[in-house]
Design goal:
This protein has 186 residues and is an all-alpha fold. The protein is built from 7 helices and no strands.
């Protein structure tokens, strides 16, 4: 088992140093993340500008995973919405590109805010639905998912946990980048 884990760590490149990045680039990225965090905080769970891109990926996920049946098609929106930044973060981690890794990790967790807003709407269903198919047959993903799992009454609690974890992830990735500031070249 340890041989398998060692081979995975070796393949990932985790033992290699990050590629150099200037101190000014790290500081510029930190300013960007802090401004985005303030913007997201002020929006109180509202639709953020980046969510337009997330929505396109989400809807594409329904179409892509829909090939594997209605259940995966239903879950596919959120799966792809989270999978794209996660896989990009994995790529940048493997390539040891710090800025790209932190950017994708940050926006992986930002997707959780968008998902939490949609989850919290599962019972109320007041958010406008977007679909690539006939709007008359559009379903609210999380209403359907939570209903199928018999947890619909807990939609806002689940959403609060997802939102909290999203904020933790965004803050942690920003803080981690900040800790790397002192180790970067001038």
């Amino acid at each position: 088992m340890t041989e398998l884990l060692d081979s995975i760590v070796e393949w990932s490149g985790a033992r290699e140093d990050w590629r150099p990045i200037s101190r000014w680039a790290v500081m510029a990225w930190l300013v960007f993340y802090v401004l985005f965090l303030l913007y997201a905080f002020r929006m109180h769970g509202g639709f953020l500008w980046i969510d337009s891109a997330n929505l396109v990926v989400h809807e594409g996920g329904h179409l892509l995973f829909g090939w594997f049946g209605p259940t995966l098609g239903l879950w596919g929106g959120t799966i792809l919405q989270w999978l794209v930044p996660f896989l990009l973060a994995t790529y940048f981690f493997h390539e040891r590109q710090l800025a790209g890794f932190v950017f994708c990790t940050f926006f992986f967790f930002e997707n959780w805010l968008h998902t939490a807003t949609y989850m919290a709407d599962a019972r109320a269903m007041v958010l406008p639905l977007v679909t690539t198919r006939d709007p008359e047959f559009a379903k609210h993903d999380w209403n359907t998912i939570f209903t199928n799992l018999n947890i619909l009454p807990y939609d806002t609690r689940i959403a609060a946990v997802i939102r909290f974890l999203g904020w933790c992830g965004m803050l942690a990735s920003t803080a981690w980048l900040a800790t790397n500031l002192r180790t970067k070249e001038k």
